[in-house]
Amino acid sequence: MTAEFLPASLLTPMATDLGISEGMAGQAVTATALVGLVASLLISAVTRSIDRRRVLLSFTVLLIVANLMVAFAPNLPVLLTGRVLLGIALGGFWAISTAVAMRLVPEALVPRALSMIVSGVAAATIVAAPLGSYVGEMWGWRSVFLLATVLGVVAFVVQFATLPAMAPNAATRLRTLVDVLARPGVGWGLLAAMLVFAGHFAFFTYIRPHLEIVTGGSITAVSGMLPGFGVANFLGSLFAGLLVERSLRRTLMTVPLVMGLRSSLGRLIAAGECRDDRALGAGVRRRSG
Predict the structure, then answer these.
(1) Does residue 277 register a pLDDT over 50?
(2) Mean pLDDT of 200-226
(3) pLDDT of amino acid 285
(4) Is residue 40 within 8 Å of residue 91, measured between CB atoms?
(5) N or C, which end of the chain has less CB nearby within 10 Å?
(6) pTM assigned to the model
(7) Do 94 and 36 touch, CB atoms closer than 8 A?
(8) Closest CA to 180 of 190, 170, 168
(9) Residue 69 has pLDDT above 90, yes or no
């Protein structure tokens, strides 16, 4: 997940080095997300006869290759190809991670195990955004992806040493996707989850250009602001397991509601600041006249 989030903290130098706009560089995130979506839907059926341990190890190898391609990418097509490979690894991981976690821990600890997985994602936002921008400023954005490659190698070694063999315990077919979507409420649930994550990543992907261009923040200020967002994300994910144990329904309803209220409050504050700036400008012009 650190590899997925890195472009959000490196968008400006990536765009400058490759001679493209920040919007085009942001497609590095889009490519990963779109391929991850398709991979998450198909991977269970495609790998239904393969040991889950081997599948997870293969995804980590794909992650390592993807980061190396991005680190040495001479142009946008090569960079996007690397991000496509990362999307396959990420989509595949998310497709089977829940089932693997449920097989590795007792039933009573499943909610906590799943919250730990999500906490890893939140921890990635702490590492990727501020550390990526800081290291990228010192040694260049390519060095950051090389460091991500090292993390991938470490993950592979740990997985190889600790994961037990896990033979597939169900024959997943492509038809299963249709059967699941046909169940009442599943389609609406997927749509709701898509909208929540779309809003989150639309904000997170372009946070550095916004801070630099709109607010005029320096790289030091950007690196200082991003950890606060990451820490809050980590704590929320860490405590999510306890909330889910109490009530899954209430948790799923409360989180997007709080996100919506936060966004509305931010818009009101921004609108107020714009009115204040216009009023201040008008006052200065009157005094100058």
Answers:
(1) no
(2) 62
(3) 46
(4) yes
(5) C
(6) 0.67
(7) yes
(8) 190
(9) yes
Which residue, chain included where needed, has tokens 């690196």? 223
pLDDT bracket for residue 160 (50, 70, 90) = very high
Tokens at 243, concatenated: 């909330």
Token reading at 105: 């821990």
